[in-house]
Design a protein that fits this description.
This protein is mainly β. The protein contains no helices and six strands. It has a domain of 62 residues. InterPro entries: Ins145_P3_rcpt (IPR014821).
């Protein structure tokens, strides 16, 4: 089963690119764009003991693989992309209140998502 990740506010979809990611050139870039076949992904089990299509429980880790670029997974770079200057700003969404932001890209090395 494939799916697209849509940014609610803009209506655009997370889309995989062949070009290098801006801040982690060993990885490929992801951008928000209109939906195309490059915006299709699939959930994959993190461990080989699970099979594609099996039930995934809340505490089980998963990976997200690009359908168009097989073997390339959504990945967060280890380098800090941006440090937020004002963490106590109540207008920031909770997801941005960690103080550091990391680039989201495609890589053969995956980030495990819980």
């Amino acid at each position: 089963m494939t799916f697209q990740l849509q940014h609610v506010k803009s209506g655009l979809f997370l889309t995989a690119h062949e070009e290098a990611a801006p801040h982690d050139p060993e990885c490929r870039g992801l951008e928000l764009e209109a939906g195309t076949s490059a915006a299709c992904f699939k959930f994959m089990p993190r461990f080989k003991a699970q099979t594609e299509g099996s039930i995934v429980y809340y505490t089980q880790p998963i990976t997200i693989e690009s359908v168009k670029q097989r073997g390339m997974f959504i990945h967060t770079s280890q380098a800090v992309y941006h440090t937020l200057p004002d963490l106590h700003n109540p207008t920031l969404p909770k997801g941005l209140q960690f103080g550091k932001q990391f680039e989201l890209n495609l890589s053969p090395q995956y980030s495990t998502l819980l």
